[in-house]
Amino acid sequence: MNLQTLNDIVLPDSVSWMPQTVGWVVVAVGITLLSIRWAWARYHRWLRDRYRREGLALLDRIRGELPDPTRRPGALRSLPGLLKRIALSGAPRTDVAALSGSEWLKFLDATYGAPAFSGGAGRLLPSSPTPGC
Question: What is the pTM of this model?
Answer without folding.
Answer: 0.62
